[in-house]
Specification:
By secondary structure, the chain is an alpha/beta fold. It is built from 12 helices and 12 strands. It has a 7-stranded mixed beta sheet, with helices on both faces. Strands 7-9-8-11-12 form a 5-stranded mixed beta sheet, with helices on both faces. The longest helix is centred in the N-terminal third of the chain and has 14 residues. It is globular, with a radius of gyration of 19 Å. The mean pLDDT is 96. Keywords: Thiamine pyrophosphate.
């Protein structure tokens, strides 16, 4: 995802001199090409995330389109006051790009995990939130963010996520994408864990269970129409996210369903209100924290049994 974002940002900057790349020390190396070719469109603020966000708001007020890039906890928590007051309250045209969604920084521990950011950013007025599932989708949301006049938060993984699309598609802000059909249970997923949900659907198909997988790359505004339609079609909903079950995708989907009066079997699969535990490979840490493919499959089976 990171490389897809960087290549898209480079292309955008080559076409529009108002596009600027702002970093907080980390990411300086991966921006080598950008910095060399567009020196007047790049600023490294050092380990000063709050300053970066405030400066981005100032640049936006002068007609620039700054993309602020750093690790998610440092962007969404350390600089939260600046995001709220300088960017969202003023509706400044600032793009906040967080790297390291979920527990993908699995060897660095809870300080570098991002399991609260969707909840934190969802409550901010004027904020659009993208959570792409793959490299191709990262390109799509980056391009879309550049054309939105207002604050945008992009939640990215790292550089090793598999592709879930076998061909190009028409990305639309606020719209979900059905990845596979099924009539027994709907799996709503966001971010790189959508790949796991897709693999689980194929596994369940071998058991005679039809799992409909819907990827929701836009968390805000969310695709309420598709959520209700899919829920009513299958009668059972499982949300799948590498995030705390409080405030993230599960909360967003449940809000939509309750307001629509959709009475279906419902469960949330995510980090169950605790800090991520364990160190090691990403897949191992997901298993330690109950968000592995096996956990997704068993949660889906349980919902189907309850129907």
């Amino acid at each position: 995802m990171r490389n897809a974002y960087l290549s898209t940002l480079y292309d955008l900057a080559s076409e529009n001199p108002a596009i600027m790349a702002l970093v907080a020390d980390n990411g300086a190396i991966v921006y080598d090409r950008f910095r060399a070719d567009f020196p007047n469109q790049f600023i490294n603020f050092g380990i000063a995330e709050a300053n970066m966000v405030s400066a981005a708001a100032g640049l936006a007020s002068c007609g620039k389109i700054p993309f602020c890039y750093t690790i998610i906890p440092f962007l969404t928590m350390r600089a939260y006051e600046q995001v709220r007051n300088d960017v969202c309250l003023q509706k400044q045209n600032v793009k906040l790009v967080g790297i390291g969604a979920g527990c993908v920084y699995s060897t660095l521990g809870p300080t570098h995990h991002a399991i609260e950011d969707l909840a934190i950013m969802r409550v901010l007025p004027n904020m659009t939130i993208f959570s792409p599932a793959s490299p191709l989708e990262s390109k799509k949301v980056t391009a879309a963010a550049a054309h939105i006049d207002g604050p945008v938060y992009l939640r990215l993984g790292t550089g090793r996520e598999p592709e879930i699309y076998d061909q190009d598609y028409d990305f639309q802000v606020g719209k979900g994408i059905e990845l596979t059909g099924g009539d027994d249970v709907t799996l709503f997923a966001t971010g790189s864990i959508a790949y796991d949900a897709l693999q689980v659907a194929r596994e369940l198909a071998q058991e005679g269970i039809g799992a409909r997988v819907i990827n929701l790359p836009t968390i805000k505004p969310i695709d309420a129409e598709l959520i209700v339609q899919a829920a009513q079609a299958t009668g059972a909903v499982l949300t799948v996210e590498e995030h705390n079950i409080i405030g993230g995708l599960g909360s967003a989907v449940s809000e939509v369903l309750m307001e629509a009066g959709a009475m279906v079997r419902f469960a949330r699969l995510g980090i169950r209100d605790h800090f991520c535990k364990g160190y090691g490979a990403h897949g191992d840490v997901k298993k330690m924290n109950g968000v592995s493919r096996a956990d997704i499959a068993e949660a889906a089976r349980s919902l189907v049994r309850q129907k």
